[in-house]
Specification:
Largest sheet: 9 strands, parallel
Mean pLDDT: 82
Strand content: 5-15%
Order of helices and strands: HEHEHEHHEHHEEEEHEHHEEHEHEEHHEH
Helix content: 25-40%
Number of helices: 15
Shape: globular
Number of strands: 15
Strand order of the largest sheet: 5-4-3-2-1-13-12-9-6
Structural class: alpha/beta
Length: 506
């Protein structure tokens, strides 16, 4: 006989199951909403690494999201079983055929997606790239191409696992500051309106390529470099949207919010922005003075922290904007200015172009293949500044520089650059490789090459973990005139205070 107690127990069990389902649902939503950092993999290299080498580099750097500019079979096979989430691309030259033929789209999906999924964790299909700018004559069939590709995914029962969109250049957004006044180039509205409706109906993102470097270069001094690089700004230097009173501290956020406002002007408010390309070149022509290693390091390091710290934008605080960095390798066969060839994090041999500063950002790649960074004197650095920094490190910096004395293992070669490298590296490891501890007013640099030589073994070579020698940090403003080698005082080292302040304020 069915008893009330049994009904009550079953009701309680059903309630508990319902709560469990809600909890799991919320957990999945939360996981999906976490921002990620990925990397684009271009192939315009004279000596392109083998796909297995590329994947080995990705795994060593804990890079979990990549975007390919095609659907190369070798790469897709090499990525199988890694769990790395992959965005593949239909090249622009294939769009016209796909946009005009449903069967061509179905064949493409069969050959390039179904043949590799789920062994290769394909999550996204980018239909073309910056079509409005690069191939405007294909614009009229762009949305049809997206629909045909999506239809092929539906037929393969993969439409929930794999999203479809198309990357657009931020230049399609006009009057981008203040963001609240931004709108899309009206000439493209006949394509953009159905595109946004497609993204809305399929739960896909608006893919946007954002390059603050070009915004800065083309602003004729209106955009401050720090504003482009995510560097901290005093409150009175922040850009304010007069319509919303929102404060903007960097170009990236302003551009993302401009995209949101531009979509809102077309009555679309629930399509998220996914940044498919962003970065900064590490080298440029003579007319590109701000394409430097330091600026590339600063921009990409700050971008990664900005995304992974779930910062969001002023319009959508706390909602991170997932971003693919442009790009994994320097592409030496690219056409155009020197900067076009120097956006990479690594060279073709997998050697870091520079080492990102990601302290406190969790398990993110730091383009350091061995996790054994060293801090050395920067090539071509001013010898007087090197000497001042060396004096500080071996004095107030509390580095044990006895190995540099005459007759000791690291005395030879007896030059300021060699001795400074030993002192810089010792200080860097002594301070736990903290952010800002390898700068020394710009005369130091990070490298993965072990600078040890002969019997002179640098501290990081022994796998030692740097620690603070005591609970107090040396004062960079010290005016003490003692000098460990007696060559000169280090009063000028007072200018290095910004390094210490930078590391303490992060």
């Amino acid at each position: 006989m069915f008893k009330f107690g049994g009904f009550r127990a079953m009701k309680m069990l059903m309630l508990m199951l319902l709560l469990l389902m809600v909890f799991l649902s919320l957990s999945l939503v939360s996981a999906d909403e976490d921002g990620f950092i990925g990397v684009n993999i271009g192939t315009d290299l004279s000596d392109m690494p083998h796909p297995t080498q590329v994947v080995a580099l990705l795994k060593s750097q804990q890079i979990r999201h990549v975007r390919l500019y095609d659907a190369d079979r070798g790469m897709l096979v090499a990525l199988a079983g890694t769990g790395i989430k992959v965005a593949v691309t239909i090249p622009n030259e294939q769009l016209l055929g796909i946009g005009q033929s449903n069967s061509t789209a179905a064949h493409w999906v069969s050959q390039n997606i179904v043949a590799h999924y789920p062994a290769t964790n394909i999550t996204t299909i980018c239909v073309g790239s910056e079509v409005f700018n690069n191939l405007p004559n294909v614009g009229p069939v762009l949305v049809t191409a997206l629909k045909f590709i999506h239809g092929a995914l539906v037929a393969s029962n993969l439409d929930r696992q794999i999203k479809v969109s198309t990357p657009i250049a931020s230049t399609v957004i006009l009057d981008s500051f203040p963001p609240s006044q931004a709108f899309f180039n009206h000439s493209w509205n006949p394509v953009l309106v159905p595109l946004l409706k497609f993204l809305q109906s399929t739960g896909s993102s608006l893919m946007l390529n954002i390059y603050p470097y070009y915004d800065y270069m083309q602003s004729n001094g209106v955009i401050p470099l720090d504003y482009a690089l995510f560097n901290p700004l005093p409150a009175n230097k922040e850009a304010v949207d007069a319509n919303t009173l929102l404060h903007y501290t960097n170009v990236f956020d302003a551009m993302v919010d401009a995209a949101y406002y531009a979509m809102a002007s077309l009555n679309v408010t629930n399509v998220p922005v996914l940044v498919t390309e962003s970065g900064w070149p590490s080298k440029g022509d003579s007319n590109e003075p701000d394409a430097t290693l330091d600026n590339a390091n600063t921009y990409n390091s700050n971008l990664i922290k900005h995304v992974l710290n779930q910062t969001g934008t002023p319009k959508h605080p706390g909602i991170p904007v997932s971003t693919y960095i442009y790009e994994l390798y320097n592409e030496d066969t690219k056409n155009g200015p020197v900067s076009e060839k120097n956006w990479g994090l690594f060279d073709a041999n997998g050697k870091p172009i520079y080492t990102l500063q990601l302290t406190g950002s969790g398990p993110a790649f730091a383009n350091d293949t061995a996790n054994q960074n060293h801090c050395t004197a920067k090539e071509g650095a001013d010898s007087k500044m090197l000497q001042a920094a060396l004096d500080w490190a071996c004095g107030p910096g509390k580095v044990n520089c006895s190995a540099l004395l005459q007759g000791q293992p690291c005395y030879e070669p007896d030059n300021v650059a060699s001795h400074a490298s030993f002192a810089f590296d010792s200080y860097y490891h002594m301070m736990g490789k903290g952010e800002g501890t390898c700068d020394f007013n710009g005369v130091a640099m990070l490298t993965t090459t072990d600078p040890s030589h002969g019997s002179c073994q640098f501290i990081g070579s022994d796998g030692m973990n740097g620690t603070f020698l005591n609970s107090t940090v040396a004062d960079f403003n010290s005016t003490s005139s003692s000098s460990w080698r007696g060559r000169r005082d280090y009063a000028t080292v007072g200018v290095l205070i910004k390094v210490l302040l930078g590391s303490l304020l992060l």
